[in-house]
Each structure stands twice: as C-alpha cells, then as structure tokens.
Design brief:
Blueprint (H helix, E strand, L loop, with lengths): L9 H27 L14 H14 L2 H8 L10 H22 L3 H9 L6 H29 L7 H24 L12 H27 L6 H32 L2 H11 L9 H18 L2 H4 L2 H28 L14 H34 L1
Helix pairs in contact: 1-14, 2-4, 2-7, 2-8, 2-13, 3-4, 3-7, 4-6, 4-14, 6-7, 6-14, 7-8, 8-9, 8-13, 9-11, 10-13, 11-13
C-alpha cells in the first residue's frame, strides 16, 4: 500500500517538498541544540517546560480525539462515520508521533529518553505517559493497517480486531488523563492543582480534534475526489459544540474559584496571563485572542443554521482550533510556571531554535497525514474502480 504514496501530481510534490524543507531546517536547529544544549532555548531554572511541552500537551488531545469517531462507529454502529473513521485513526497516529518527538527534543539529550525506559519508575507520571502513548500508537497502527487492508481486499476485517478497537477507546481517554496528572500531581504549582484539569483536557481535546478533522474533510473535498458526506461533518460539528461548551464552562469554574477566593497563589497566574504581572505581559494579547475566539466560536456553534453552512463551519473550526491551541499550547503550561512558588516573575519567550524545531515536528505531522490520507484515497479509488 505504501507505494501509493510515491505517486502524485505537481501540486502534491510541491507540498511534500515544502514540508521536507521545513523539516530539514528543523533538523539543523536540533543539531545545534544537541551540540550546545538547552541553553539555546528560552527555558530556564524557573520555566523548565515551554513551547515543546505545550505542543506535546495540545497534540495528545488531538490524538485522543480519534475516539470521537471510533466510539460511535464501532460501539454504536453509526454508519455515517464509516468513511472518516480511518482518517481519525491516521490523524491519531500522526499526532502521537509528534507528541513523542516533542518529549524527545524537550529532554535535550537522547539518552535521557532511554533512561525513562531502561530505569522505569512507577511513581513517575512521565513513565506512564510514555507507556500510554506508545501503547496508543501501536493500537491505532494495527487497527488502521488491518481495517484498510481488509477494505482493499473487499472483505470484512478479522474478528480479532474488534477487541483491539474496544481497548483503544478507554486507552484514548487514558493518554490525556495521564497527561493531566503530569501537571496536577505537582503540589507546588497551584495553577494546575485542580481536580478538573483532566476533564478540561478531555473537553478541549474533543473540540480541537474533531474541528481539525472537519477542516481536513473539507480540504479533501476541495482538492480530491473524496467526499466525506454532509452528515458526518454535521455530526462532528455537534460534537465540537458540546465539547467546546464544556471547555468554556470548566474555564469559567477555574476563574470563579480563583477570583472569588482571592487566594494570591491562584489569582496571580491568571493576572499574569490576562493582565500582566511584574512588568511582564508577553502572553496577554494571546490569551485575550484565545478568549475572544472561544466565545465567538461558541456563539456561532450554538446556532444550528450557522454551523450547517460549511463555509461558516470552516471558519468556526479555525477559530476553535486556534483558540484551544493558544490556551493549551501556550498559556496553560507557561502560565503554570509564572510566577514561581517563590513569587518570581521570569520572562519566557521561545527562541528561533525552539520555533524551528516545533515547525519541523508540525511539518512531519502534516507529511504523515498527507501520506496516510493519500494511501487511503488510493485504496478506495482502486476498490471503486474494480
């Protein structure tokens, strides 16, 4: 099947070449980081997790969101998702791979990653996170290959794959729950010390992932012969609506708890993110942009006649994805470190090296999705022609 990925037109190869160039620049940036160390990043003693771990957190959610199409299709026999379920699984594979790479580059030296596996520590959430991500990657790879192979042969998938699919559903929830435990298991970081961090992670994941899947379906309809159909896109839009509603509700709960109680250790993190603190306000415009996008997209989603219009829905999905990326992929992680438990306000800004490495991993994710989707469409075209 993979041979189908090396055939394509000029537009396909231009896109792939562009991604490879970005990945090449990222590799050069990573080699510099490998040579000099994490000193080339904006990380410091007070802000030890930055853009890498923030992106890792966001894309764990994108990976987990595959369950939003897998569960209705396989457990509730919702046939409308039949054409897009494998697209969700391939999106999950690409996102998990990106997550692993973000952990890899954040650790600085490759041998530190090996230490996690060679000397497993059950008390370490990072160990459980790597274990759950590796298992989820393996599950989705097996499911996608077996189901696509069966589709190519025009036969039903083997019966043994059904239990594997069922196991992958709670596993998807577990990967983002364990990621939340990474943060709210740290008693010194009051910003993350909340019992609803895991539900908040899941709600934002189930909004961002399906929003991205809708966009991919609409792009594929525009650029290829493939049409996912209007019904699955509309159902995904409903999922995004409810998930976004829960996400905004959870954030409102966090704001009420912090601002009404007026506990300084809780208030100061929100003050840093939305107003600035100690003369430092690098994230203020980002967080207000995220908030405006979240509220505006939710208002639009709550009007059924608007979210049924696909051009409007595409704009809404971009707003949802951008809002959640800023909130989870920038503010949530850096905001948890500033101010420090001692009240120090440390400035963190990603360096060009960090940005290039992150763009390279994004490019790899885009390349994986491109190749996987191209193979899927080629197989379906072959089946339809026979």
């Amino acid at each position: 099947m993979f041979e189908k990925a090396v055939t394509g037109g000029r537009r396909y190869w231009a896109w792939v070449s562009g991604l490879l160039v970005v990945m090449g620049l990222a590799l050069l940036a990573y080699l510099r980081q490998l040579d000099v160390g994490l000193a080339v990043t904006g990380l410091s003693r007070d802000v030890t997790w930055g853009l890498y771990i923030a992106q890792f957190t966001f894309f764990v959610g994108v990976a987990a969101s595959a369950v939003m199409v897998v569960l209705p299709y396989y457990l509730h026999d919702y046939k409308a998702f039949g054409r897009i379920t494998i697209l969700g699984e391939f999106l999950a594979i690409s996102a998990v791979t990106m997550c692993m790479l973000f952990i890899f580059v954040d650790m600085g030296q490759p041998r530190r990653v090996l230490n996690v596996m060679l000397y497993p520590t059950p008390h370490s959430m990072m160990f459980w996170d790597m274990l759950s991500l590796g298992g989820y990657l393996a599950l989705n790879a097996v499911i996608a290959l077996v189901t696509l192979g069966a589709e190519r042969k025009r036969v039903a998938p083997p019966r043994w794959i059904k239990p594997v699919i069922i196991v992958s559903i709670p596993w998807a929830v577990s990967i983002h729950t364990v990621t939340a435990f990474l943060y709210n298991g740290l008693p010194g970081r009051s910003f993350w010390l909340t019992a609803i961090l895991a539900p908040r992670f899941l709600a934002s994941a189930f909004a961002a992932g399906p929003a991205l899947l809708i966009l991919l379906c609409l792009i594929m309809r525009k650029l290829t012969w493939f049409d996912a159909g209007r019904e699955p896109v509309r159902k995904l839009a409903v999922i995004v609506t409810y998930a976004m509603l829960l996400n905004v509700f959870f954030i409102a709960l966090e704001l009420f708890t912090a601002l009404y109680s007026q506990i300084p250790e809780h208030v100061e993190h929100f003050e840093y993110l939305f107003l600035g603190l100690g003369g430092q306000a690098p994230l203020v415009p980002w967080m207000w942009t995220s908030s405006v996008l979240a509220v505006a997209s939710l208002i639009l989603l709550l009007v059924p006649s608007l979210r049924r219009r696909e051009p409007v829905l595409a704009v809404i999905c971009v707003m949802v994805f951008s809002s959640l990326w800023i909130d989870k992929g920038l503010g949530l992680i850096v905001g948890g470190f500033v101010p420090s438990p001692f009240g120090a306000v440390t400035r963190y800004a990603p360096t060009l090296t960090e940005v290039l490495i992150v763009l390279g991993i994004w490019a790899l994710g885009c390349l994986m999705v491109t190749v996987f989707y191209k193979i899927t469409l080629a197989v379906r075209e072959e089946v339809a022609a026979s």
